[in-house]
Amino acid sequence: DRFGIVEGLMTTVHSITGYSEDCDGPSMKDWRGGRAASFNIIPSSTGAAKAVGKVLPALNGKLTGMSFRVPTVDVSVVDLTVRLEKAATYDEIKKAIKEESEGKLKGILGYTEDDVVSTDFVGDNRSSIFDAKAGIA
User: Fold this and answer.
1) d(CA 108, CA 129)
2) Are 11 and 76 in contact (CB under 8 A)?
3) Are the CB atoms for 128 and 107 separated by under 8 Å?
């Protein structure tokens, strides 16, 4: 809300799922989807960007996305690159996100400056955690 989004790209990185293939074989969806999930990084399509537009109507049609399936057991990552309506420094963006994570989005949005990896988030009930050390501006 503070900076406005003109457009953006969401790249999601997902753990393998129960329907991921154990070894190379045919896939009903696409060739890549039939490859062995525990040995590959598999590019795929995603509906995440469209879903964001349904939940946050102000972003409808502004985001596009792609995903990768990776051989981990849990936790996903979203790399969000956006063009803002209002200029902002990375420190201003971090401050705004931290304030929201401690205010109206407490328990939903997290904020961390710790040196974390994916397994540090297993069991975390929050919908999203902003990793301040993983971003750039």
Assistant:
1) 8
2) no
3) no
Q: Contact at 8 Å (CB) between 37 and 14?
A: no
pLDDT computed for residue 46 by the predictor:
87
Record the pTM. Answer: 0.85
Q: Find the mean pLDDT for residues 112-135.
A: 96
| Cα 69 to chain centroid, rounded | 12
pLDDT digits 0-9 by tens, 64-122: 999 999 999 899 999 999 999 999 999 999 999 999 999 999 999 999 999 999 999 99
DSSP 22: S
In the sheet with 5-15, reading across from the earlier edge strand, the strands are 42-44, 63-70, 5-15, 77-84
The candidate with the shortest Cα–Cα distance to 10, out of 56, 94, 18, 38, is 56
Look at the domain 1-86 and name its fold: Dihydrodipicolinate Reductase; domain 2 (3.30.360)
List, as one string, the DSSP characters of 35-77. S-TTT--EEE--SHHHHHHHHSGGGTTTEEEEEEEES-SS--E
Residue boundaries of the structural domains of the chain: 1-86, 89-132
